[in-house]
Amino acid sequence: MNQERIVVQDLIDSLEDRARKIRRHIITMTHSAGSGHPGGSLSAADIVSALFFAELKVDPQNPQWPDRDRFVLSKGHAAPVLYAALAEKGFFPLEEIKNLRKIGHFLQGHPDMKKVPGVDMSTGSLGQGLSTAIGMSLALKLDQKESRVWALLGDGELQEGQIWEAAMAASHYKLDNVTAFVDYNGLQIDGTLEEVMSCDPIAEKFQAFGWQVIEIDGHNIAEILSAIATAKETKGKPTCIVAKTIKGKGVSFMEDQVGWHGNAPNAEQYEKAIAELS
């Protein structure tokens, strides 16, 4: 039993370290580009770390492997967190992250499935990612594949009506092979979620649409892994993991500050952020 605990703790430590690296890459990318969305990328780093380095069945040498798991970044503006994970996973050279949003390079401001190895869906128009994840899930069911689909949604994105049409379809078709994470950081580009248009109660809404719902601390790796395991064990219904997070997590002057939704750090801020994440 002690050995099992040691192994689990080693995994958690490894994923936390990976999340710190991902956060450093996010800061490097947005600083190099002079633009981008660091706040919502930083808030999702722990979730993405757990998925890509403990769960997703993918092959960097064969990005289009038919039996792979799928990941849909529905909040496509948080592309830096996905690019950081893909680079760390070996889908493309790590040096490319410094070319975010630069002409002649493939890391665009939003993920492009035709240009970036490892990206399963082009996203950016909010609200559409869950629908595509549902389509993938249905296709996998029809093909009798065991692969799973994981989608990452923003909380402000839940203001889009298409999200709820997709939620209704997933429940109707009993898609137990799809899981949606909601990055619930409470902030969007124009202010707090409550000020713009409250989506609360999020958990109860998904439950009403027939989903299993798990509420967690989105920065607690152990809770993330436990929720993932529960989602995989659930039969006959989709799962929504509502992850309470902090926008800008890991960088003190960015945390819970709406202004860092879509602004890049300058040279001085870059140095301070990297120091805090080292």
TrEMBL record:
Keywords: Metal-binding, Thiamine pyrophosphate, Transferase. Its cofactor is thiamine diphosphate. SUPFAM superfamilies: Thiamin diphosphate-binding fold (THDP-binding). Residues 20-270 form the Transketolase N-terminal domain. The keyword Disulfide bond does not apply. PANTHER family: TRANSKETOLASE N-TERMINAL SECTION-RELATED. It comes from Heliorestis acidaminivorans. GO terms for molecular function: metal ion binding; transferase activity. InterPro entries: THDP-binding, Transketolase_CS, Transketolase_N. The keyword ATP-binding does not apply. This is Transketolase. Pfam families: Transketolase_N. Belongs to the transketolase family.
